[in-house]
Amino acid sequence: YDTSHIRNFSIVAHIDHGKSTISDRILELTHTVEERDVSKQMLDTMDIEQERGITIKSNAVRVMYAADDGQEYQFNLIDTPGHVDFTYEVSRSLSACEGALLVVDATQGVEAQTVSNANLAMNSDLDIIPVINKIDLPSAHPEEVKEEIEEDLAIPADDAVLVSGKTGEGIHELLEAIVYLVRPPAGDAEAPLKALILDSYFDEYRGVVATVRVFDGVMRKGQQLRMMALGDTFLCDGVGCKRPLETPLAELGVGEVGYVVTGLKDPSLVKTGDTITLADRPCAEACPGYHEAKPMVFTGLFPIDNKQYENLRDALEKLRVNDPSLTWAPETSVALGFGFRVGFLGLLHMEVVKERLEREFDLDLIATSPSVDYHVFRTDGTMVDITSPQDLPDVTRIDHIEEPYLKAKVIVPPEFMGAVMQLVVEHRGETGNMVYLSEKSVEVHFDIPLAELILDFFDQLKSRTRGYASLDYEMGDYRTSDLVKLDIMLAGETVDALSFIVHRDKAYSMARGLCDKLKDIIPRQQFEVPIQGAIGNKIISRSTVRAVRKDVLAKCYGGDISRKRKLLEKQKEGKKRMKAIGSVEVPQEAFLAVLKVD
Ligand code: GTP
């Protein structure tokens, strides 16, 4: 086994700097996919990724490159997500590689996730190739971006490759640079198999299919294999690689990246970060594995039709194979029935999971307003973790509440510094250090309650800085805050699924804003519906949805029957997304209205 012709590398970057576009060009130039078959963003295989134009999951493909030295090289390329919610995906991908292409947009320069991804790559001791993309644009300033890379990231930029993912300029030079600058994998072909699980998904017919990196030994069909951490054994049902479609291979050799069909039908037997080895000749030591991703945001997910509860549990189990950061516990709501409290890495992650559950598992779900993990100290001296406002003990039994803070940083041109600081203060944050990265960009550090950040902080940051600011954060400490539970009543009844926890200083404006929003979201019913906001027994805001007689058929003048039927069907369709709470029909948006209150 000779690994000198293998190159394993990830492509990392701040969101929208062009990773997926560059990957497409690489597939094209290496004839992995013929030009006429290249669709946009080939590696973003999920519908949601294509529609939103973002990468959510990492994807490993193999391309063969005929280099200028006359030799053929095997490249295993891993495209990674750029959004801060998915940083854990990036670090998983990096652990399978010897190199990283750090893509920086020539018009934007270094941004928040450029810094965090560069740090991840340096910590993993990878060979880093800076790639300056979008040089076709008139506003590109590659020389300044080179300086930023050297000064802000301490990465030498002499070898930076200038490319355009759009026109393909520089991509050939990039492929050559990968051959020369990324080291081939080390590893012992004779040693017992040692393969790291990077990712996996559940297939109804083949069971769990796992993406692996072989560090030692060789993997082939028919071997009896063992998961080192979880201990289960299985018969290897085949191996292969993606090009970009799954292509079976005789074996995966040392240093290679590919997939293994485990045949395991129980999704809980396969864990990302686990090591696969031979059942009768295990390797001495497992791969280091991964830190568990810690959920930051929690929401209730409830099936609109309560009969789908078991299906939802099953869907969550299967989705976790592909998304190990998912956690959940059963939750019951008076208003919504049986569901689950699910933990997410951020709001985008939450949206994506909800959408995947609905699409891939054909469920109709309602998500309730997001919450963070509060530490509630009771008067009896004990502490409870609370991720749902419903679980908050009675106020008389609460001594104090602590909430999670983030250590955050924003990179922004200096003229917007004032706007950023004001926004931070409005969201109960505290600004700290400021570092000039260059004349054109400042890094502002601050601490901010996570609960504030998950509301509309990011959107406001973007709009107040005309899109120039980029944000990155990590978990900080817990701090005591004066928090209260705000309840919402519809037609005199408290709707538990609409409650949320808020800082006392903001409770009044929040209650008012929410009552106003709900008034517009909740459709008129046959009777008047008062909406009230309350803290404990005290009503602090009120609005009213006025009554209407909703006689859609009247519009048809008793005429065309098929038209009548269509209208009825349309109305039924509209109803599907609603949940009857008492006698009031409430649409999904109402439960997330708290995200929209300014
Ligand atoms: P995420 O996967 O969501 O993190 O984004 P990404 O880094 O993969 O970026 P993507 O490839 O989706 O590109 C973002 C946008 O920039 C798209 O609209 C691309 O068409 C555009 N783009 C990418 N490369 C170039 C380039 O070289 N020149 C120009 N003009 N536009 C580019």
UniProtKB/TrEMBL annotation:
<keyword id="KW-0251">Elongation factor</keyword>
<dbReference type="InterPro" id="IPR031157">
    <property type="entry name" value="G_TR_CS"/>
</dbReference>
<dbReference type="InterPro" id="IPR013842">
    <property type="entry name" value="LepA_CTD"/>
</dbReference>
<dbReference type="InterPro" id="IPR009000">
    <property type="entry name" value="Transl_B-barrel_sf"/>
</dbReference>
<dbReference type="InterPro" id="IPR000640">
    <property type="entry name" value="EFG_V-like"/>
</dbReference>
<comment type="function">
    <text>Required for accurate and efficient protein synthesis under certain stress conditions. May act as a fidelity factor of the translation reaction, by catalyzing a one-codon backward translocation of tRNAs on improperly translocated ribosomes. Back-translocation proceeds from a post-translocation (POST) complex to a pre-translocation (PRE) complex, thus giving elongation factor G a second chance to translocate the tRNAs correctly. Binds to ribosomes in a GTP-dependent manner.</text>
</comment>
<dbReference type="Pfam" id="PF03144">
    <property type="entry name" value="GTP_EFTU_D2"/>
</dbReference>
<dbReference type="InterPro" id="IPR005225">
    <property type="entry name" value="Small_GTP-bd"/>
</dbReference>
<feature type="domain" description="Tr-type G">
    <location>
        <begin position="4"/>
        <end position="186"/>
    </location>
</feature>
<keyword id="KW-0378">Hydrolase</keyword>
<keyword id="KW-0472">Membrane</keyword>
<dbReference type="InterPro" id="IPR000795">
    <property type="entry name" value="T_Tr_GTP-bd_dom"/>
</dbReference>
<keyword id="KW-1003">Cell membrane</keyword>
<keyword id="KW-0547">Nucleotide-binding</keyword>
<dbReference type="Pfam" id="PF00009">
    <property type="entry name" value="GTP_EFTU"/>
</dbReference>
<dbReference type="InterPro" id="IPR027417">
    <property type="entry name" value="P-loop_NTPase"/>
</dbReference>
<dbReference type="Pfam" id="PF00679">
    <property type="entry name" value="EFG_C"/>
</dbReference>
<keyword id="KW-0648">Protein biosynthesis</keyword>
<dbReference type="InterPro" id="IPR004161">
    <property type="entry name" value="EFTu-like_2"/>
</dbReference>
<dbReference type="InterPro" id="IPR035654">
    <property type="entry name" value="LepA_IV"/>
</dbReference>
<feature type="binding site">
    <location>
        <begin position="133"/>
        <end position="136"/>
    </location>
    <ligand>
        <name>GTP</name>
    </ligand>
</feature>
<dbReference type="GO" id="GO:0003746">
    <property type="term" value="F:translation elongation factor activity"/>
</dbReference>
<dbReference type="InterPro" id="IPR006297">
    <property type="entry name" value="EF-4"/>
</dbReference>
<keyword id="KW-0342">GTP-binding</keyword>
<dbReference type="Pfam" id="PF06421">
    <property type="entry name" value="LepA_C"/>
</dbReference>
<dbReference type="InterPro" id="IPR038363">
    <property type="entry name" value="LepA_C_sf"/>
</dbReference>
<comment type="similarity">
    <text>Belongs to the TRAFAC class translation factor GTPase superfamily. Classic translation factor GTPase family. LepA subfamily.</text>
</comment>
<dbReference type="GO" id="GO:0016787">
    <property type="term" value="F:hydrolase activity"/>
</dbReference>
<dbReference type="InterPro" id="IPR035647">
    <property type="entry name" value="EFG_III/V"/>
</dbReference>
<feature type="binding site">
    <location>
        <begin position="16"/>
        <end position="21"/>
    </location>
    <ligand>
        <name>GTP</name>
    </ligand>
</feature>
<protein>
    <recommendedName>
        <fullName>Elongation factor 4</fullName>
        <ecNumber>3.6.5.n1</ecNumber>
    </recommendedName>
</protein>
